[in-house]
Amino acid sequence: MLRSADLPTHGGRTLAYVYDSGLAEADEIGRHALAMYSSANGLDPTAFPSLLTMENELVGFARELVGVPGAVGSVTSGGTESILLAVQAARDARKVDRPVMVLPSTIHAAFHKAAHYFGVEAVVVDVDRATKKADVDATRAALEEFGDRVVLLAASAPSYAHGVIDPIEAFGALAAERGLRFHVDACIGGWVLPFSPTAPPWDLRVEGVTSLSVDLHKYAYTPKGASLLLHRTPELRRPQFFAYADWPGYTMLNATTQSTKSGGPLAAAWAVVQHIGREGYATLARAALGATNRLAEGIAAMEHLALAADPESTLLSFGVDETLDVFTLSDEMLARGWFVQPQMRFGELPATVHLTVSAATASSVPQFLDDLAAAVNSAVAAGPVVVAPELVAAAQATDPAELDDAAFDGLLELAGLGGGGAVALPERMAPVNALLDVAPPRLREALLVAFLDRLTR
């Protein structure tokens, strides 16, 4: 009953948040292992040596896909934790005043979360407007400007927003000549790009790359809660560890940010990876990559739509012309049984629609394109959502730091997200998203935090 309103996690129609191999047997194996190890605790590997064995074997499998012989790794709870640990390790390895990390503007928001948590300033450089790839010259200039304060350089393989791979070799050279750590966020691409015949060099085999994040619960198709953080050498990983003995209890020793952690996701990941195997993943990757390319070709040929960039993995995004908006189009696709993710404008980049393509989506590409064409026609007929000019002006002039709870209640009601202190999701999100789209990022963040706060009271 409670799940009746949830998006479907299987069938390939939810093109964000979930990853579906389409292999029912693999799903069942994962669920069984998850339940079997749900009470096992990964805190102490001497207490549960089976978890240690499975973690080492998962790292070994990944090392053969993306690594070098001496690479080491840890299983984490997800891509964000892997990224947090990469930033924390870089900060602690190079103790400087006011540490800095240099990031492309398209880097995953988890790096900014790490900046907030660990006091590492995020210096953001632009990407090429056409290709959406990180700008090497702008990155070099930032490295020169901040000099010894830089503790980390990072890039994406691929970026979430546009599905393109940053110039990893060029960034690796920049990092190597300066003795910097260079992290590649391959949370999405890490289990797909090894099987892509067209992917440029992107992994630990590239000179200068010192760490890599690869999610198992994405394209390894394991149950949620499993990622890998790989380091080129044990020395590079050592600052990631935390130990504390100066208290009366047990000596705390952690490889990740968690202490107690369920063995379930780790065991499930190990079981699914063992079941599918390298050849199985090659087949699944080819299916997802092929589906992405067919979707890109169909979208590029469709009136009113244009690809934001040429996809290089299993993600793509596209924009629309002035006759419709991405928010109405997303609602129209949901009405036809497809969840696609609207992405709001960023600087000079317009709003887009994002698609995460799984292997299970491959057989439905023709139906998706037919439904997308119908949704475009409906969105054109409806026209773009018009936000009243006075609301746009108010949004641009509002300082969220000066708003109290009553003001947020009023803004949430104005946005169509509730009233009288209560909140609720409307049936169609286009008017809400259109208003959020014209709000500056800090106000958008504050409104959504206020919304989440009220949802969970």
TrEMBL record:
Molecular function GO labels: aromatic-L-amino-acid decarboxylase activity; pyridoxal phosphate binding; transaminase activity
Gene3D superfamilies, per database record: Aspartate Aminotransferase, domain 1, Type I PLP-dependent aspartate aminotransferase-like (Major domain)
Statement: the UniProt record of this protein carries the keyword Transferase: yes
Cofactor(s) needed for function: pyridoxal 5'-phosphate
Annotated positions of the N6-(pyridoxal phosphate)lysine modification: K218
InterPro entries, per the entry: GrpII_AminoAcid_Decarb, PyrdxlP-dep_de-COase, PyrdxlP-dep_Trfase, PyrdxlP-dep_Trfase_major, PyrdxlP-dep_Trfase_small
Pfam families (UniProt xref): Pyridoxal_deC (PF00282)
Keyword Zinc: no
A single BP term in Gene Ontology: carboxylic acid metabolic process
Protein keywords: Aminotransferase, Lyase, Pyridoxal phosphate, Transferase
Family: Belongs to the group II decarboxylase family. Sphingosine-1-phosphate lyase subfamily.
Protein known as: Aspartate aminotransferase family protein
Organism this protein belongs to: Aeromicrobium phragmitis
